[in-house]
Amino acid sequence: MNTAEYTASNIGELFEQQGYAVIKQFIPRLMCEYIARNIRVLEANSRLSFGDTQVDKAFSGGSPAVTETLLDLMTPVLSQTLGCELYPTYSYLRIYVKGAELAKHTDRYSCEISATLPIEYESTAVWPLCIETGGGVRKIGLEPGDALIYKGIQIPHWREPFAGERQVQVFLHYVKKDGPYSEFKFDKRPELVYHL
Fold first, then answer.
1. Domains of the chain, with CATH numbers?
2. Which residues in 5-14 are b (16+ Cβ under 10 Å) and which e?
3. Tens-digit pLDDT profile for residues 9-65
């Protein structure tokens, strides 16, 4: 990876130029542990569905309280980092299991700017997210707490089959306050919704 991806002072510039940027330790490990424990409670209480429209070998949930809170909390942080005011749209979580695969795609309008963060994983190796930009295909490996920030509508992204046992991934989605998709604030809901 380009070492410039990790320089905090130029994240916004780098993001605009190439359509993505990596932020190391976007959230601290302790927060990852807190989120992971909350997600295990959701699992234990059957609050997650198995399989969704994009990945059949994963448990998933839209806007659970723990990730919606993180979405809200990180809005000013990401706005400052990227140098533009953002509206949060929605959050999502997915627990990938062995054999999970994500087809190449771009996202809907509510995902003008997206962040994907691994929270914890049970695997012998980091499972990269593949992205395609003007510079070709990149495989981005992230540790828990790291984030890949990318232009979800513009940047095709996918995952090859997962060889590990379990990986918890959180997705935070935003639109620019003064951008063409600002109507998607809160994903066109009256406010952020905190599901149990």
1. 3-177 (2.60.120.620)
2. beeeeebbeb
3. 689 999 999 999 999 999 999 999 999 999 999 998 988 999 899 999 999 999 999
